UniProtKB/TrEMBL annotation:
WD repeats lie at residues 151-192, 193-235, 376-404, 406-448. Residues 1-53, 444-553 are annotated as: Disordered. GO terms for biological process: proteasome-mediated ubiquitin-dependent protein catabolic process. One of its GO terms (molecular function) is protein-macromolecule adaptor activity. GO terms for cellular component: nucleus. Belongs to the WD repeat cdt2 family. CDD domains: WD40 (cd00200). It comes from the Eukaryota. Keywords: Repeat, Ubl conjugation pathway, WD repeat. Transmembrane segments: none annotated. This is Denticleless protein-like protein. Pathway: Protein modification; protein ubiquitination. The keyword Oxidoreductase does not apply.
């Protein structure tokens, strides 16, 4: 749109509109008598709690050995996934509507109903997605009911937002070439990240340490930041300025651009960045082509590897000249999606990047870099905006099935998001100045679990360990009957343990051999032959990052 092209130019500015910094007044006739209050947010977690969770590959190893439970989700047999619109709100300030650019649900369960929306005017608005919005009322009336608060965060467009610190803080990336850190409760800027020379287009925080983040800019660079490294010598009024800890310039250049000294900014723009779940790798994508590059944050001199949809053939070079508008990953970091300007969304397996995309999804129209796509937290579905005014949802396990089409918007659908805690809730925004919330219709779902909802390797417990567990359950029963019942449910018993499997000869040998001793005397050579050795090799062969996987390939 003409609005968007205006904000793409470097240093562009708009007129700052005055707004109240207090919560909505109940005296206004268009607002309810008891306006919603913003719930108290937790303080930033300590560094010890941030580092408590294990790494991505440790999680995989644990799953391979012990199995894992996943949240039960609806399983759709042969029918399409259906969504019902729950309501819409207008993105407006003082009666003037403006196109939204980014939306994001809070990340913690207690605040997951709060939806943040940024727009071209530089406002940041918070809405309560649980509010019941009647279709009989106007959009402005619904906005008054659902809006929690708003404030001017930048004097320019805000292209991306990111919740951190248990939703107590939020980061905003703007066309004024800066990133700002906000205290949500007080609506106060507590830090400004300076260093880019173009509009900041994308943000991504570290999976376990919210003080670390990566940003991508229209100037062709991506930067790493540490919110603890404050530049005390440089302050902007009362705001603390923070400088980047590392920056890679000209990260995505076409072959033609590398042969000339100066190129157009649009051909070098970084459109999306991701901090991967292994905690040291990042992925970047640009406007020049459909290549996704992977970097090791400990050594940014060169990329670790790169992937693209097309095979490396000189006859198909023309086909990769489509930029990528967005990247996303599921909550476990196993899958990565790339929304490409060739009207396709490519799905990659992070541990099998050398194989290229494992699947592609079509049906939407991606005609601008404002159209985004997001994979669901459980990696079961992909949600995307579209230039034709619709939103689309694909089921990952059924790529051959036509996507579900969400109709209702009257303009290009741009940013989309999945609610991380409320199953089936999504949000979409469009150039029609509205944000819509949708819920999956449970009437189409089966009561049974998906065949892939539980993945478990069947393993037999040694007899001695089994006897200890049974003995422990008996002691638990004698002390507290109620707790013993729960204990009986969670711990395996002699009836629930599968009997040893094997030939009669192997079972006879098992009777005269203590399995505990065999475990204690396991050597690295024998461990390498076990099914879990790929994910749990000896310490000398451990591979913890994407770089290690490709160096040993």
């Amino acid at each position: 749109s003409s609005h968007k092209s205006h904000f793409e130019s470097r240093g562009s500015s708009i007129k700052l509109q005055k707004t109240s910094t207090s919560f909505l007044s109940p005296s206004s006739s268009s607002f309810p008598q008891s306006p919603p209050s913003f719930p108290p947010l937790m303080e930033a977690p300590s560094s010890s709690s941030r580092c408590r969770s294990g790494s991505f590959f440790q999680d995989i190893r644990s799953r391979e050995l012990n199995g894992f439970r996943v949240r039960k989700r609806p399983y759709y047999e042969d029918s399409k996934l259906q969504f019902a619109e729950m309501g819409e709100v207008a993105v407006e300030h003082n009666g003037d509507e403006t196109p939204p650019l980014a939306i994001s649900f809070c990340k913690t369960a207690k605040n997951a109903h709060i939806l943040a929306v940024s727009d071209e005017e530089g406002y940041l608005s918070l809405f309560d997605s649980r509010r019941k919005l009647s279709s009989a009322t106007t959009r402005l009336e619904n906005t008054g009911k659902a809006r929690i608060t708003e404030w001017v965060a930048h004097q320019n467009a805000i292209f991306d937002i990111r919740w951190i610190k248990d939703d107590a803080r939020i980061l905003t990336a703007s066309g004024d070439q800066s990133i700002q850190l906000w205290d949500v409760q007080g609506k106060k800027c507590i830090g400004v990240l300076l260093g880019h020379t173009g509009s900041v287009k994308s943000l991504s925080s570290h999976p376990t340490n919210s003080d670390l983040l990566v940003s991508g800019s229209r100037d062709g660079s991506f930067a790493l930041w540490d919110l603890r490294c404050q530049n005390t010598s440089t302050r902007r009024s009362t705001e603390t300025c923070i400088s980047s800890t590392a920056m890679v310039k000209r990260a995505h250049l076409s072959a033609q651009a590398k042969r000339v000294r100066r190129t157009k900014t649009a051909s070098t723009s970084i459109t999306s960045v991701l901090y991967l779940k292994d905690e040291v790798s990042i992925a970047t994508a640009g406007a020049v082509d459909s290549i996704v590059k992977f970097w090791d944050t400990r050594n940014l001199k060169s990329q670790v590897t790169q992937v693209s949809p097309q095979p490396k053939s000189s006859t198909e070079k023309v086909n990769i000249m489509h930029g990528i508008s967005s990247l996303s990953q599921d909550s476990n970091g196993m899958f990565l999606t790339a929304s490409c300007m060739d009207n396709r969304i490519y799905l990659y397996n992070v541990l099998q990047l050398q194989k290229g995309p494992v699947q592609s999804f079509t049906g939407c129209q991606i005609e601008s870099f404002f159209v985004k796509s997001v994979i669901s937290p459980d990696a079961s579905s992909i949600l995307s905006g579209s230039s034709d005014g619709n939103a689309y949802v694909w089921q990952v396990e059924r790529p051959q099935m036509d996507p579900t089409v969400l109709k209702g918007h009257d303009g290009e659908v741009t940013a989309v998001d999945w609610c991380p805690s409320e199953e089936g809730k999504i949000a979409t925004c469009a150039d029609d100045f509205t944000v819509r919330v949708w819920n999956a219709e449970t009437s189409y779902s089966s009561s049974s679990r998906s065949p892939t909802s539980i993945r478990r390797r069947i393993m037999n417990l040694p007899s001695r360990e089994q006897r200890q567990l049974n003995l422990g359950s008996e002691e638990k029963d004698s002390s507290d009957p109620e707790e013993a019942m729960n204990h009986h449910i969670t711990l395996p018993t002699s009836e629930s343990i599968m009997p040893p499997m094997g030939t009669p000869e192997a079972q006879k040998k098992r009777l005269h051999h203590d399995p505990i001793e065999s475990v204690e005397t396991t050597t690295p050579e024998s461990a390498m032959k076990s099914p879990s050795s790929v994910l749990n090799p000896p310490s000398s062969l451990k591979r913890k990052t994407i770089r290690d996987y490709f160096l040993t390939a």
